[in-house]
């Protein structure tokens, strides 16, 4: 068996997230279709493993996946043939033969997500599908103070969108940056891993801080509460993009 490492880029607008779902269009499902058409291999004979499970409507610049195949094929040739069988909003950037033990999810040591907001007087036109548009400007100084409290090793249960999540909700978020450029505000999150909807809930909370509806100094109390109702709303999916997976 040959283990192939895939780097994938996609516009998640019209998909129900990464993970395969019956009767719904997903990124994993489209990749499975492409492999079946390209190699004439039944889907039951292979499994595409992603580094994570992006939500419906979320995008990726560099999602990583791996697949074990009972064949050794030229890397660039396999990439090019797969891309011919993928829709225009999904592209495989690279195909590399990896070690037999490489696992896209379990070997990942970090992920970077970017969330983009437009809060200025002129709304974006050409990138509007990838930006959350707000009607008034945010107080980024307050947001940066709050972001500092969100960094670190914490139990992020208050920022988890799955109320039935039973495993540990302790995660490490080692860097949150907030920057403004060309009329857009980018919130960047780097951590060892993230809970379901976690980045979008942190963004929603920081937006509330930016509008002075949540005091930045109350963030530690929200974290300690472990109560989803204490944090802000879940920000829209379209502003979120998985930028990179670290190994």
Tell me what you see in this structure.
With 247 residues, the chain is α+β, with helices and mostly antiparallel strands. The longest helix has 13 residues, at 27-39. Strands 1, 2, 3, 4, 5, 6, 7, 8, 9 and 10 form a ten-stranded mixed β-sheet that branches. It folds into two domains: 2-98, Pseudouridine synthase I, catalytic domain, N-terminal subdomain (Alpha-Beta Plaits); 110-246, Pseudouridine synthase I, catalytic domain, C-terminal subdomain (Alpha-Beta Plaits, 2-Layer Sandwich). It has helices at 27-39, 75-84, 140-150, 198-210, 219-225, and strands at 2-10, 48-50, 59-69, 90-98, 110-118, 132-133, 152-155, 170-181, 184-191, 240-246.
Which characteristics define this entry?
247 residues; alpha+beta; Alpha-Beta Plaits; 2 domains; 10 strands
Given the helix and strand composition, which structural class is it?
alpha+beta
Strand content is: 25-35%
Helix content, binned percent: 10-25%
Cα shape? globular
Under CATH, the topology of the largest domain can be stated as Alpha-Beta Plaits
Taken together, the total number of domains comes to 2
- The CATH architecture of the largest domain comes to 2-Layer Sandwich
Q: Strand count, sense and closure of the main sheet?
A: 10 strands, mixed
Uncertain segments of ≥5 residues (pLDDT<50)?
Answer: none
Number of distinct helices = 5
CATH class of the largest domain: Alpha Beta
Report the strand count.
Answer: 10
- Could you report the average pLDDT, rounded to the nearest whole number? 96
- Rg to the nearest angstrom? 19 Å
CATH superfamily of the largest domain: Pseudouridine synthase I, catalytic domain, C-terminal subdomain
What is the rounded distance between the termini? 22 Å
In N-to-C order, the SSE pattern is EHEEHEEEHEEEHHE
